[in-house]
Amino acid sequence: MTCVLAVPGNELHAQQLAERLGVSPCPVELRRFPDGEIYVRVDGDLAGQEVALVGSLLGGGDSFLTIAFLAGTARDLGATSVGLVAPYLAYMRQDAQFHPGEGVTARYVGRLMSQVVDWLVTVDPHLHRLDALERVYSIPTTIARSAPAIASYVRSQVEHPVLVGPDAESVQWVSAVAESCGAPYTVLEKTRRGDRDVSITAPETAWNGHTPVLIDDIVSTGKTMIEATRQLRAAGSAAPLCIAIHAVFADALEAELLSAGARGIVTCDTVPHTTNRICIADSIASAVRARLG
């Protein structure tokens, strides 16, 4: 038997997963003691069950503590295994030391989480300099792919699409969506000089009536998408549709994208946001079923 527990703030993802697994989410109570410490309680019989905790690490250190406390509680209640379903896997950006004295937080979080849960399912993690999650996580991991859901959306919304990646690291997502759509794709070249300072090389392509669909995995400040949009329009393309897998929006960017010439931006629902239009619950459920066997 499987039990689904929602890390507070992730109830919708937990409900979607539970429905697809044919179970009901187990109620979780989380509150603060007067001194700020976290109280957790699980209202259910977990004895002999495989538990799937559903939640991302957004929100700072308390998110990790909440997951750790829920995992510990589940084991105390007799769970045979406890896994984490993280629609968005945070702390993957800093995967190397770029300057003296920096911490490699991707490695630290992977090491900590591998001591807390038995397995991990996540959607398209930010693997740039790392070629696999196993480089930082010592537990079994499964990646749920967003490409099928994105491709379905593109087919329904865009005539004659050409998929565009803003940089070399985006080719893994862009090529997969293009293959599912039966559409061509191209990848631009990016130079990053800082968190909010990037430049994109103008594309050398003939659009031939195609509408560009610009795809990136994580959008935070949006500078990469904004600059890529400007270069696409300068090269004579139609207004691109921008799609992000993870809407980690640090700044307000929709107005800037429209000003740069974008048709608009839509995102997968891994991170709740008003731009969510693409549901990846089916991919997550398939990955969890494969992990649970």
For the terminal residues, how far apart are their CA atoms?
A: 11 Å
Q: Structurally, how many domains make up the residues?
A: 2
CATH fold assignment of the largest domain? Rossmann fold
- Mean pLDDT across residues: 89
Radius of gyration: 20 Å
Please count the beta strands (DSSP E, at least 2 residues each).
Answer: 15
Short overview:
With 293 residues, this protein is α/β, with parallel strands linked by helices. It has helices at 11-21, 61-76, 105-114, 147-157, 171-181, 223-234, 254-260, 281-292; strands spanning 2-6, 28-32, 38-42, 50-54, 81-86, 119-123, 141-144, 161-165, 185-187, 190-194, 197-200, 211-218, 241-246, 264-268, 276-278.
What does this structure look like?
With 293 residues, this protein is an alpha/beta fold. It is built from eight helices and 15 strands. It folds into two domains: 2-145 and 280-292, Rossmann fold (3-Layer(aba) Sandwich), CATH 3.40.50.2020; 147-269, Rossmann fold. The chain has helices spanning 11-21, 61-76, 105-114, 147-157, 171-181, 223-234, 254-260, 281-292; strands at 2-6, 28-32, 38-42, 50-54, 81-86, 119-123, 141-144, 161-165, 185-187, 190-194, 197-200, 211-218, 241-246, 264-268, 276-278. The protein has a six-stranded parallel beta sheet, with helices on both faces. Strand 8, helix 5 and strand 9 form a beta-alpha-beta unit. Helix 1 (11-21) packs across helix 8 and helix 4 crosses helix 5 (171-181). The N and C termini lie close together (11 Å). Mean pLDDT is 89; it is low at 193-197.
